[in-house]
Amino acid sequence: MRYIGFRSRRAAVTTGADLLTLSPVIPVVVVDDADHAVPLAQALLRGGVRVIELTLRTPAALAAIENVAREVPDIVIGAGTVTAPEHAEQAAKAGAAFLVTPGTTDRVLDAADATGLPYLPGAATVSEVMRLAERGLSALKFFPAEAAGGVDYLKSIGGPIPHVKFCPTGGITPQTAPNYLALPNVGCVGGSWLAPKDALANGDWDRIETLAREASRLG
User: Fold this and answer.
1) Residue 117's closest CA among 134, 94, 135?
2) pTM of the predicted model, to two decimals?
3) What is each CA distance from 123 to 37, 62, 179, in whole angstroms?
4) Which entry of 53, 66, 165, 209 is annotated as an active-site residue?
5) Percentage, residues of the chain above pLDDT 70
6) Domain ranges in the chain?
7) Strand ordering across the sheet containing 189-191
8) 165 an active-site residue?
9) Catalytic annotation on 141?
């Protein structure tokens, strides 16, 4: 996988497939304090990671997305854990550049389509992958990766469904990430380890920068 340069990246992020080329690892982050979002994004940038997925799991998430979109224009900011149609619209209005869903329903897919943003819909079974492919979606999130079969599962479905590529997320570590990235049907992985909860709480941005630098070298 060749990860595209930053100057072309912002213009090129128009499809789900483009999202898979941004970084070997997309940080998947839960933010409890919206004020942490900007220094977090800046630390990731210093470490060479130019994309972040802020999950809609806390009341601070939308404000955090808005802060990053406004104050850190050099990072591609996305909204994760989009589980309801209204989440898609709310994230788009907050300034998200892409969406990620853990699973898919027709209403959520329709809402994501309506925003015009690129998105990675979640799938965990062959039937779900085929159904999304029928809608013309060929870049998906595989979640929960480790619990759903991990590397061996993705390897086994690469033969019958070779045109679909994935961002596996869930239970992946710095040690297991290279095994996923070596697969031809994996473009990147999602990783929560780049922004540990204690580092966020303590404002340890140097640690996050170091983790980001290590992750950026995995590709």
Assistant:
1) 94
2) 0.94
3) 28, 24, 20
4) 53
5) 95
6) 16-216
7) 119-120, 98-100, 76-80, 51-55, 25-29, 189-191
8) no
9) yes
Among candidate residues 66, 141, 165, 209, the one labeled active-site is 141
Cis peptide bond prior to 144, omega within 30° of 0: yes
CATH of domain 16-216: 3.20.20.70
Q: 46 burial class (0-12, 13-18, 19+ CB within 10 angstroms)?
A: middle
Question: Which pair of structure tokens corresponds to residue 3?
Answer: 């990860």
pLDDT in tens, 19-49: 999 999 999 999 999 999 999 999 999 999 9
Whole-number Å distance between alpha carbons of 204 and 216: 19
Residues in the chain: 219
pLDDT attached to residue 12: 59
Beta-bridge partners for 40: none
- 87 CA to centre of own chain: 16
Residues facing 27 on adjacent strands: 191
